[in-house]
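Homework help board

Subject: predicted structure for assignment chain

Our instructor gave us this sequence and asked us to write out the predicted structure in token form, then describe one feature. I got the tokens but I'm not sure how to describe them. Can anyone check?
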Amino acid sequence: MKCKTFLRRLAATCCVLALLITSAAALSVEDARALLEETYVDALPEAAYEADTLEELFAAIGDPYTYYMTAEEYSDFLSSVEHEDSITGIGAAINYTDEGILLTGVLVGGGAEEVGLQAGDVIIAIEGESCAPAGEAHRALLVGEAGTYVNVTVRHADGREEDYRIERRLVEIHNTSTALWDGGIAYIDCDSFGSDTGTYFAQGIQDYDDDAHIFVVDIRNNTGGVTSSAVYSTGTFTGPAALLYLRDKAGTYRQSVNYYDALTEDPVIVLTNAYSASAAEIFAADIRDCGAGILLGGRTYGKGVAQVVYNWMTHPSLFDGDALKITAYRFYSADGNTNDLIGVFPTLLVNSNLAQDVAKLLAEEEPSRPEGYLRLGLNGWYFYVDLDKAQAEEYQAAFSDLLSALPPDVDIAIGAGSLWVETTAREVVETYGGENFQSRWFSDVADSPYADAINTLATYGILNGDRSGSFNPTGELTRAQLCALMAQALGIGYTGESQFSDVSADRWYASAVNAMAELGFVEGYSDGTFQPDALLTYEQFITFMSRLAAYLNLDVYEYVKDQDAQALAEDAELAAFSSWAKSGVDVMARMMRSSADDSVVSMLPVALEDINPQATVLREEAAATLNNLLQMLGIIDY
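My token output:
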């Protein structure tokens, strides 16, 4: 296991409980404002002090995660966090298909489990009547009063058809369940991180670890939950580690640590999508940071702030069943990185709808004879792909997407007889890509010294070329183009009024420029202009990259906060740079000296001592620097 650190200087403090979820008042405006002044992570805007109603107050703050809840709304909120329920039926999770009712999971204690049904089985008839194609009316036949029975005909994965008499039972549905798939794969489906989720993880691993050689955890559409549950659940795979840092408005950090040993030595594949948020993102990022496995699927939502909830238990004089939820912390993963806005990048960015099949391709046991297999080295683990299985019709789409998700310099080998022979992603694609393969790489960067870095960013959807698939690597970069590049990397935009007189709302770069200015990454000139078409100089570029690094990583943030302005001004090595650029240059120099990762030869494509601050930056140089920065921090990690 690995938990990388960079300038780690934070002392451990107490573990806190916070909520990380995406979702006629008794509380007075004055009391609400007082709680916000005490807790809200940022300074309150002036409009908040002019508000006469709660609606006006929260509208002024403009934070979708900070709001008042009536008693009924608070009850619904708690239910959404716990995500617990019960149902009377055969005890199975199902999907409707043209062939019948597909069992996607079997619930513990249900009648389906008792008769031996498994995920992958298909109910093709109920009480002697066909249920193909299946629909809601067929599901209604499976549910009913507890203690009654239903007769079904089932087609198993091997084609056998059998009749079963299944008892309907009251079955508890938890936010997390575990099942054993064929091939020794333990599948954990986690819908939210409720109070008992960590226990469900522990129980699932203990139940199936002896029979499984790999775990798949599905957090697609998991919008968050309780941080302590996320930390404990993560720890079942990582073992002892500091897994969460929370920073409040005063700049004080609180650290959540898992002290318990890992419950398995097997790797985990985590499935993600754009609706994996908050606590789910902490889980995903920590699995990545601590080297417990890999992530597959889509880039996650990007909610990197945590809330506290005030209710009658915390303030009995202010609340009577109602509650107030306030954004109180910014949070960071084990490596000290935020997922706010940027989300968590999966190890392999694949279509989230295909992620489950891609996981099955990567979940083969190590073959006794390599012939006919691919071996991928990802985040410290080897994963194996059976090429015959991968090219079967059922898996063709998933295999094609897997190949398109491979970074250029990924550790890859192909079996040749009894040996593993190192190869390249390009050679594998050329051999197995097929007609449906769609490359994400650019068509005009092969001769660039930074080709791998450029194509890596393209693989992760951070860079876009033109319609012909070109990147124009040796082209110069304007200030507006850099903003567009970074807005793409962070996945953000801006819809308010323009902050610059020469950036009109109808220009292609307006959203990106204003978004970067809103975050404080770029600034305009004293006359109120931004000069979007001006070529980007090296000192401007370095300043931008250093601000990005400080936003993404808490250690860089703290380093910048502790810089001595006088010392920077007197530093002879920084003499050539403008006063406003010295801080950023110092940050980049420190990061380059602190890197212990041999794959990052230099943060910048040019040695600092050789930089002409007023020289213009080429597109390929900017891409290489961004790639190096993201990989050094561990935000892109494969």
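Reply (TA_rk): Your tokens look well-formed. For the description, you could write something like this. Residues 1-17, 596-601 have pLDDT under 50 and may be disordered. That's the kind of observation they're looking for.
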